[in-house]
Amino acid sequence: MRTEICFTFVMIGCTASAPDQQLPSATYTPHLDSQASSVACGDDVAFYGNTSPDLRYLFTYDAAGRLSHAAGAWANNGPTDSIDYQWSGNNLTHMLSVSGWDSSSYEITAHYDASASLLDYTWAYNDGTYDDAWTYAYSNFAGPNQPLRLQITEQGQPDVWGYNFVYDTSNRLVQAVPDSGPTTTWAYDDDAHTITSDTGNGAWTDELTYDEQFRIVSAEWGGSDPAAIAGDQVYAWSGDQLSAVTYRSGSQQAPQQLDVVQVDTLRYDCSAARTLAGRTSRFMTHGRR
């Protein structure tokens, strides 16, 4: 089960490491979908099939090579976006993204234990007339980044619901068993380089595909549920550099008809990309939960 929310860049400590020649573990982190790449200096964003960028980000890094700020400028000298990041070591503790287009904001606040395992995070949205916030709390750890329990709360709502997690012998997540409702299962094919997930016997499905270097190259989702809207992301690589990501989605009117929503083209043509060591990460945020 994937989650997409608007575009920004983030690295957050929520993915368990895996031995060589084995796919990484899936994670159950709604509103977070990160992908590591070598250091870029910016990103050109084109929406809905436009051939030129609608929005251009320029990145700033701190002395430790961590992304600290992203400044976004819309085409035709339009409003500017800003994204600011705070870190504890290599773990993101706070991210605030503010849109100059409509003044809406996305905010993530995260906490970790001494072993750098993600304990909880809150995702919040505000546009001046509407606001919402979700908190995800992990507990009962079997090992680093291996919580056995997740509890979810929504701002202003009395209900608390949760999941119990099950891992395989390689410490990879294989089940999220909810307090009520259908179980989500993950299957790993290390030879085919795919991770598939299923919720409700095909009602909601997801497949991640990796290349021979275990870099993600595509993600596809959909399902038989009437509310399931199909979509995919395709990742293009140039050597070790993530060069572009294309995001397509169906709509409520045509859930299986995939149209290009967003294309991100990473830029490496600046001194920051050439001199800094480290990684950047990205996640897309387009309101699909």
Question: What is the secondary structure topology, with strand pairs?
Answer:
Layout: E1 8-9, E2 35-38, E3 42-47, E4 55-61, E5 67-74, E6 80-88, E7 91-98, E8 105-112, E9 118-126, E10 131-141, E11 147-154, E12 160-167, E13 173-178, E14 184-189, E15 194-199, E16 204-210, E17 216-222, E18 231-238, E19 241-249, E20 259-267, H1 271-275, E21 279-283
Antiparallel strand pairs: 1-21, 2-21, 3-4, 3-20, 4-5, 5-6, 6-7, 7-8, 8-9, 9-10, 10-11, 11-12, 12-13, 13-14, 14-15, 15-16, 16-17, 17-18, 18-19, 19-20
CATH architectural type? Beta Barrel
- Main sheet record: 18 strands, antiparallel, barrel
- Secondary structure category: mainly beta
| Shape, per Cα inertia axes | globular
Task: Kindly report how far apart the N and C termini lie.
Answer: 8 Å
Radius of gyration: 19 Å
Give a count of the beta strands, DSSP E runs of length 2 or more. 21
Uncertain stretches = 1-19, 273-289
CATH topology group: Porin
Number of domains: 1
